[in-house]
Amino acid sequence: MVWSWRVGRLFGIPVYLHGTFLVLVGFVLLGKWRQGGDLGSAVGSVLFLLAIFATIVLHELGHALTARQFGIRTRDITLLPIGGIARLERMPDVPRHELWVALAGPAVNLAIAAIVFGFSTLAGMHPTIALAEASTGTIDRFIGINVWLAVFNLIPAFPMDGGRVLRALLAERMDYVRATQIAAFLGQGVALLFGFIGLFVNPFLLFIALLVWMGASDEAVAVQTRSALTGIPVTHAMMTDFRMLESGEPLDHAVALVLAGAQRDFPVTQNGRLVGVLTRDALVAALATGNADVPVAQAMDREFQTTDAQDLLDTAVQRLQGCRCQVLPVLQRGQVVGLLTPDNVGEFIMFRGAVGSLRPTATGNAGSSKAASVTG
Question: Whole-model pTM?
């Protein structure tokens, strides 16, 4: 994510801290200063905040490690002021697997709360479950917040874990797309409820309502899109009119190609073999050094993803979403025969939907059953 800094790796998964997190730390320090607190109490509040976010990292790690058991890689974990995000390559295809992945995060928070509660009891502290009231002890608040995080994340609404739990349970009994539509509809109902309560109780609930509404809508659209691409070969949507670069060609030749057409990213070959991808961003960054005569090989990305012409489009799109560039070379017997880009995929879906919506009228059939088979 933009404005994120890598702070380490856990179990091989990069962990990033978003820049806005520092704003939250500053807000906590400012709040303590306005309340007349001393430096010690301000530092203590920041340390408590960091401890909470450490549990959020463990929450996301619970998702990631459970997904790994089902062969799904996690790209990274990013900490934001509103929580954490674990970006999985994809959600599990088996509903039962998605259920375990979704439940793993809240389970981690409940386990942390139980462990701290148990050790505190053994130490004679008589802990209770409380939230962030200033009159409660630090241990009590820590336990309470972890319980609250588990319960809140189990609300049956996307993008919370509870939305995925609900979808997984529904998908055991019906079509996956239909299950997503029902879960998204219920999630939007929860968003409306949060928004109504927020008008009278806590304005922060309005922000949560917006997040839930957008998350539910995005999930429904994403699943419908994936459904529309299922079973379709990559060759049906790939770009076949494209240009390639030789690794020894100068950068100014790439500039000429960008200016001459709509292509922004280029496969780079050496003796007929694909060796890299030159993206427009990499080209601009290389030109900023002031030398347009350097070979393309010095600016190209040597770590890139490809797809085979025999692959299905939904699988290729997931791979495209996971790569850093906006192009996926399509190979056939080791040779580049096409390019797959987000624009290609979007246009394919648009035209496929248009053809589907026209087909009932053209054949004289009543209703819209054929159009529905394309969109959901």
Answer: 0.66
